[in-house]
Amino acid sequence: MKVLVLDGVAREGLQKLENEPGIVLDITKTVPEDQLIAIISEYDAVIVRSATKINKKVMSYAHKLKVIGRAGVGVDNIDLDEATRQGILVVNAPGGNTISATEYTIAMMLALARNIPQANTKLKNGEWDKKAFMGTELCTKTLGIIGLGRIGSAIAKRAQAMEMQVVAYDPYIAEKSVISTDIELVDLDELLERSDFITIHTPKTKSTRHLLNTEAFSKMKDGVRIINCARGGIVDETALYDALRSGKAAGAALDVFEEEPLTNSPLFELNNVVVSPHIGASTREAQIKVAADVANEILATLKGKLVKNTVNVPVIKHDLIPELKPYLKLVERMGTFQSQMVTARVKKIQIRYSGDFFKQTDTLTAALVKGFLDPILQENVNYINAIVLAKERGIVIEQTSVSMEEGYSNLITVRVFEDGCESSVSGSLFQGKPRIVGVNGYRIDSVPEGHLLIIPHVDKPGMIGLVGTVLGENNINISGMQNSRKEAGATSMMVISVDLAVPDEVLAQIKQAEAILDVKMINF
Ligand SMILES: NC(=O)c1ccc[n+]([C@@H]2O[C@H](COP(=O)([O-])OP(=O)(O)OC[C@H]3O[C@@H](n4cnc5c(N)ncnc54)[C@H](O)[C@@H]3O)[C@@H](O)[C@H]2O)c1
Ligand SMILES: O=C(O)CC[C@@H](O)C(=O)O
C-alpha cells in the first residue's frame, strides 16, 4: 500500500504509519496539480493539509485511492461529493489543532486591540512613536462568537478569563444548558448589534459564505473589530474593506482569505488590518497531533478496520465498534440475499430496525445497501458510496426504528418493493453470529454463508424428499435444511444450505417438479 503525504505534514506524527509493514510512505511538500495528477494513480491513500486541492480532476486519475486524510479540521479543499461518489473515504483530525487555533485567535484579538504588529513594524523601521498606537482593553468588552464548536467554546473560556462578556450565535446548539452557563446564546442580529469584537468559528458552508456581508456590517456597532481565523469567504472581503474604510469597523485580524495563497489585496493596504498566511494551526504540538491522528485513521482504513473521524460517512463511536461489527456483517449479508431474490425493477428498499442499534442505523443501512448493490454492479461499491449509488438508480431507501418486538432483542427486516411484487428478509444475531430468521414472512433459521436454496412450494408430502433426491443425484451435499409454513396445506418455504453452488440445470430440474413454485440460489 502506498501513502502520499503532501503539504509538509509533520513527519514525527506519522511514525506509526511509517513503521507499519507493507505500507510505503512518500512524503513531499505541496506539489502543483499537474504533478499530482501524474503520480496520484500509484497511491492508496493521500494525506494533505489545506494547501493541496483534491478535486474531481485529481480524483479522476486516482484509480487506487481509498482514503483521503486531512491533517486538520476543514475539508473545503476536498471535493466531498466526488469522493463519496467514487467510494473514497475522507477522514480528518478534528481535535488536534483546536488549542493552537484558539490561542492564535486570542493572539489576533489582542494584536488587533493593541496594534502590536503595526507598532513592531514602525519601531523596527526606526520610529519611536508612542502616540500612534492608542489601543483598547478587552476587559468588559463584548465578544461575539459565531460558531460555538470546539474552537468557539475554547475561545469563550479564555475570553471570560479576560473578563469579557461573551455572546454566541450557533443555530445548531439548541440548549443553553449544554454549554457554559456564562455564555449568552443569542440570534445573529443581536450578536451583530451588541459585540465590540466579533470572531468567527464556523466551517465554510453555503449558509456561512458571506455571513458577514454589507447588510451584516450595517447592523454592527460603530468601531467593531472583526477576527476571522476560521475560513476565508465567511467574511465578504469587499464588505469588510468598505466597513474599514468608512470607519464602521475599527479593525480586522485575518488568518484566512477567500483565495489562498494571497499576497496582494486591497485589505493589505489598510493600516488597521492585521493579517497572516493561514497559520492558526501552525504549532509543533498541533501539527504532530493532527499528523498522528490522521495517520491512525489512514492505518485503520487501509487495514479494513472501522474508522472514527470520517467526514463523508456516519461516524461510528470507537467503543461501539465491537458491538456493531457482527450487525454490519449481518445487514450486508441480508442485502446480498435480497438482491438475489429480486425478479423485477426495484423501486424501494425499506429497512426496519427493532431493538437497540446504538443509534448507528445510518451506518447499518449503508452496509445493507452495499450488500444489495455489490453483486449487481461492476463498479466499486462500499459503505461510502452505496446510498449515493442507490439514489442515482432511483431506488428509494427508507429506514425506521422501533422498540423490541417478536421475541428478538434485535431484529432487522428488509422489504424490497419491486414493480408489481415485494419480498422480505429478516435477520438477527444468535450467539453473536448472523442468522436469517425470516423469508417473505416464513420463520426460518439459516446461517447466511456459502450457498442457500430458497424453494417456496405447495405444502404436501414428499417435497423435501424430492428436492433431496435431485441434489443427491447431482452429488450436492446438504449441510442444513429448514422448512416453514404459515398454515397446513398452503405454501411452505424450504431453505437449504448446500456445500456447492448448484448448477443452473439442477436448479431447472428442481423447478420443473410438480408443486415447486420457485427456486432461487443465493450465494454469499
Ligand atoms: N486558521 C486555522 O489554521 C484553523 C485551524 C483549525 C480550525 N480552523 C477552522 O475553524 C473553524 C472551526 O473549527 P472547529 O474545530 O471549532 O469546528 P467545529 O465543527 O467544532 O465547530 C463549528 C461550529 O460551527 C457551528 N455552525 C455551523 N454552521 C453555522 C452557522 N451557519 N452559523 C453559526 N454556527 C454554525 C456548528 O454548529 C459548530 O458548533 C473551521 O472552519 C475550521 O476549518 C482554522
Ligand atoms: O493545516 C493547516 O495549515 C490549516 C488547518 C486548519 O485550517 C484546519 O481547518 O484544520
From TrEMBL:
Question: Which pathway is this protein assigned to?
Answer: Amino-acid biosynthesis; L-serine biosynthesis; L-serine from 3-phospho-D-glycerate: step 1/3
Identify the EC number(s): 1.1.1.95
Q: Does the keyword Secreted apply?
A: no
Q: Which InterPro entries match?
A: ACT-like_dom_sf, ACT_dom, ASB_dom_sf, D-2-hydroxyacid_DH, D-isomer_2_OHA_DH_cat_dom, D-isomer_DH_CS, D-isomer_DH_CS1, D-isomer_DH_NAD-bd
Q: What class of enzyme is it?
A: oxidoreductase
GO MF annotation, one: phosphoglycerate dehydrogenase activity
Q: Does the keyword NAD apply?
A: yes
* Source organism superkingdom: Bacteria
Q: Which GO terms describe its biological process?
A: L-serine biosynthetic process
Under the heading NCBIfam families, the entry gives: PGDH (TIGR01327)
Q: What is this protein called?
A: D-3-phosphoglycerate dehydrogenase
